[in-house]
Amino acid sequence: xxRILQKKTRKPSQKDIERVQLGCAMMQAQFQMMGY
Length: 36
What we know:
Blueprint: H1 2-9, H2 14-34
């Protein structure tokens, strides 16, 4: 848990940004499949 908090205080790296974008894309795809 402490490691995650330390990461958030730093500037997000390219890998972190890609992970967040991938998560958002997966959530949007799930909503579209459910009919939202």
